[in-house]
Amino acid sequence: MVQWHERSDKKASGGRRNTINANSRKLSAKGGAAALTKTDTSVAKDKIEAKAGMGNTSKTRAIFVKNANVTDKKGKIAKYEIVSVKTNDANRLFARSNVSTKGAVIRVKVDGAEKLARVTNRPGQEGVVNAEFVE
Which domains does the chain have, with CATH numbers? Predict the structure, then answer.
């Protein structure tokens, strides 16, 4: 469903607002629902979809992810399987439903053990989960 990110046509008092613009629905004010990237270990590969953007551009949105690219202190990057989302400061319900957003702390499987990593990018905007280990 389309979302419009602009001022309402109604005033706080309930009266109609006289708009200056002839066209009150501009493409620059058009938005959409959040991707809400979920962690799902049962999928064979990550589910990613492309969404058209402004000016002949597109965004890759991650819908379901299984793996994360994790950076260690030395700068080495490796791909690890995500076990679950431990905490998510964006919304406490996101942690319960395994939704990854920027700043979420995830559990990753490293050599049979679980370690914590913090998501450093926006998976719903970039289509991949990048993270760094948390001490």
Answer: 35-133 (3.10.290.70)
